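User: Some background: our group keeps a shared notebook of sequences we're curious about, and every so often someone picks one and asks for a predicted structure to add to the entry. Today it's my turn. The entry only has the sequence so far, pasted here. Could you supply the structure so I can complete it?
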Amino acid sequence: MVLERLYVIPHGDEIIDMPDDESAELHNKIKKITSGDNSDSLIILTPHGVTLSSGIPIINTENLHGEYSTKTKTLVSDHKTDKEVVRNIAAEFGKEMITINFGTSSGPLSVFPEDFGTIIPLTFFKNKRISIIGQPRITDRAKLMRLGKSIWNTVDSMNKKISVIFSADQGHTHSSLGPYGYSDYSSVYDKKIREYFQSGSLNGIENIDESVIIEAKTDSYWNMVILNGFLSGSGMHVTMDYYYVEKYFGMLLGHGIV
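Assistant: Of course. Here's the predicted structure to add to the notebook entry:
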């Protein structure tokens, strides 16, 4: 097996700014679980990158660049795309995986913007080639599971060490003071996600009722179903390292275990 490590990492600004004890503890725990990552390449699935009305996007420009400002810092991120990984994932999944270019597929003008769901988790890693997959917010959960298995099959078949990052925040309606208002379903959703991680398995996560997902305003759900497909293909389990609610949205840190 050439999988180096598997992560679920949130992307709230607070893990960079660390305005309170909980965000500082989460920051330090991310640093701890990512330390010593010796992967040659990273695959990151982000809910805030490019989305398509049909098909699943994977970025295929030669270069990736992003800038993102939090309250205290400006993050600048530059990477090269691991085109071999992109090509193999697209071939494994099939024609519904759409390779995205901008301007041109190679050369100095071939640059695609990194989003904050990519930039923030990547600040905890050394610079290396990456592959960005845009989270498909589709209702076909079997297809999401198949995508996860395809990512696993690709990683398992390659002669390089690859780490996979699922960038995800949890429910966004924990407080009436937040931009999405309050719903009891954020607590319901986050409790379900924590229970899955605490059990070590995401089996059944694909069956969470659509109304819970809609009312919780989560951006994690589709990535979590993809992760379940990855786990079912690999035989791995997951564990939860930390969870807390930052004002109105939940952040959970987890990693994969054999």
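Suggested note for the entry: The longest strand covers residues 237-246. Residues 141-157 form the longest helix (17 residues).
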